[in-house]
Amino acid sequence: MEPVRLFNQSTLQIQDCGAKGRGVVTTVAIPARTIIDISPILLFPSEEYSTHGRYTQLDHYTYRWKGGMALALGLGSMFNHSNSPNVGFQRDIDSGLIKYSTLREIHAGEELCISYGPNLWFPDMEDSQNQDKNTNNGSSGGASNGAMSDSEDETAESFFSRIQFSDDDDDDDDDEDGNGSS
Ligand SMILES: C[S@@+](CC[C@H](N)C(=O)[O-])C[C@H]1O[C@@H](n2cnc3c(N)ncnc32)[C@H](O)[C@@H]1O
Hints:
The protein is built from four helices and nine strands. It has one domain (12-125, 143-164): Beta Complex (Beta-clip-like), CATH 2.170.270. The protein has a five-stranded antiparallel β-sheet with strand order 4-5-3-8-7. A four-stranded mixed β-sheet has the order 1-2-9-6, with no helix packed on it. Strand 7 and strand 8 (97-102) form a beta hairpin. The chain is an alpha+beta fold and 182 residues long. 15% of the residues lie in helices and 26% in strands. It binds S-adenosylmethionine. S-adenosylmethionine binds next to strand 2 and strand 6. Residues 2-117 form the SET domain. It comes from Linnemannia exigua.
């Protein structure tokens, strides 16, 4: 593999994003179509993932990948979901990397979000109905909310089909538009 230059992330920070848990926020404005991060991945072969990984915290963090499931190391695991994402991603299967780029101009202080696709496994806190519920219940929500129990009875097959991050080498252009659903 050729050496890959990574990015200085001094203008991005991880912070508490309320009911969504931690998220990535920019401290400066970023122009559209700017690469903001390149995350190397750790590949879990399909069998290992279906036997072990899916029963762990990885269940919240992995991307579909050729031959299994991939954990993005670094920022790639920290982007929350939005139905109107401001960041797209493109997988480089051969190099084991995911490249993240802005889809539009982003203002200082904005959270950077990708689209996980249509089949979310948690109540989307960007959805105003869920925000209301969260406020009314006084629930903290976030990465460990009860939504995961909804998937406990799923088969491995349905589990793999509900994970949003893009599944197909040929749909990288879609990913760039933030619509990299399976
Ligand atoms: C890849 S992790 C993102 C980082 C995570 N927020 C954290 O604190 O580690 C995905 C998890 O973040 C939470 N999440 C992401 N986007 C969300 C959203 N729009 N609404 C509610 N929860 C969200 C969910 O719990 C999901 O399983």
